[in-house]
Target: Glucose-1-phosphate adenylyltransferase
Amino acid sequence: MKAKRKNVIAIILGGGQGSRLYPLTESRSKPAVPVGGKYRLVDIPISNCMNSDIYRMFVLTQFNSASLNAHIKNTYVFSAFSQAFVDILAAEQTPDNPTWFQGTADAVRQCMPHFLNHKFDYALILSGDQLYQMDFNDLLEEHIKNEADITVATLPVNAKDAPDFGILKSNSESCIESFIEKPVKELLPDWESEVSDEMKAEGKKYLASMGIYVFNKKLLVDLMADPDTKDFGKEIIPNAVGNKKIFSYQYEGYWTDIGNIDSFFEANIGLTEDVPKFNLFDNDNKIYTRPRMLPPSKFKNTMVDKSLISEGCILNAKEIVHSVIGIRSRIGKDSVIKNTYVMGNDIYQSIEDMEEDSQNNKILVGIGEGCYINNAIVDKDCRIGNNVYINGGSHLENATTDLYAIKDGIVVIKKGVTLPDNFRIE
Model:
């Protein structure tokens, strides 16, 4: 193992209310949303830090943080003789700060006294709701080598995607000279930057901010002294362009912002591809999460194709295709699951509980018999009856009910709900 970086602290921003990820964020914060069958979104930036020898991390949050707190407490426990930590900093009202976090920069400002209790030269600021694998050592070394005040991680994007991002324009020395927030397509010809030949060949000529920043400590402290600036992407970075030495660190690997149900669904189902863009099977870039003492998954008469099956599942399904099946999932016989993320369950039902539920005509935890589920997300701890038919797709209009939501054709079954026998969405 490399020596731990003792001059860096990581600040992971937990995000706001997460309304675009509703209903997955109805009872949990965005970083606590389950991903990949067994992980949480917050595991991604934390794992990237640990793989980059950064072991001092703060996670800033204020919405629905109980689930996130429990996950971090039960997962990231370091040696008593180590200085490593992952600390949750929830919004707190103090005599100096009587309000909740007003934005990303305001969150860092309000938590600054906690950061200053530790020695560091550089602050690495990350988002808690992105899927990517990056060696932050390369980012930090470029920042130091260039004697930058701020370094912004940037991703080359094409003209179609550029209007969805803050676009930075850099010169031949990767120094950022200008910034525009979500430019209209007519302006794009003036915002091309120097990128690699591979990116040029793909038409990716515009540098999008990834929301990943390195700040020198003194500058960050100075910037946080201004209470009028609330957000990094909308105020701090644009205001610093032309006034500070800001460098672009170009990243050309896989990265996606889990901002809405569509991107969340696509990222999870993408993990089932033969060679996924996000590699869970990498010795050098492990994704860490809570260790669970679960039994192996078991199958009976089930055809599985291009799918991820997590630990502790009991699967009697007929088919599972192009799907992610989360921990402790139970799926009954003759059921067909396609293009679906089943998040699984927090606990097992005991045989006694199952017998009692059956005697009382109560639907069991899990997915029943003879079901068909396609283009859907089934949140945790659902009770889905027999012969339930759910067929998501573009033919469905957006809708929200007590039991489910439909967004961009994806059916999201809410956490812990019960769908009766023969329930249909088609």
User: Anything to note?
Assistant: The mean pLDDT is 92.
